[in-house]
Design brief:
Elements (H helix, E strand, L loop, with lengths): L1 H45 L3 E6 L4 E5 L18 E2 L5 E7 L3 E3 L3 E6 L8 E8 L2 E7 L6 E4 L10
Antiparallel strand pairs: 1-2, 1-6, 2-3, 4-5, 4-7, 7-8, 8-9
Length: about 160
Amino acid sequence: MVFVLSLMAVVSLPRLGDFLWSSRTDAAIKDITRTLTYARSSAATSAAVLYLHVDMAEQRYWVSRDPSKESKPERREDLAELHRLPNSVRFRDVITAGRGRVTEGRTTIRFAANGTVETADIHLKESPDRDYTISVRPLTGNVNVEDSYVVQKDLE
């Protein structure tokens, strides 16, 4: 009996680990997607320019009216709060039409007051062989998720 239980544990533990990593990645992707959608709709309804800040060193992101790299994430009633990626997920890079590929430090994605968005790809890495792409389309603000490393044609 103990042998059977041990064998089941040995077989199922790697899968459980994959499941936990995958669920954390799914949650991170959904959170980033919600934040992108929130930033676009908030920019359009308030007729204000907003920025999604991505801090690759700290693995965090937030929405602000401040476009500078010195912007600090603050808890505000009218903007999305500070978010952190889970430990198992990392920003690989962010590619935007305005700044190109950024692999370290901070970068921003601009949301215009008229509802348009700067073309952007956010690339996440879950493990050495698992990449994800979150793409933002400029006119519609639609967000697309791919379970591989993809670059939009507008950004190549």
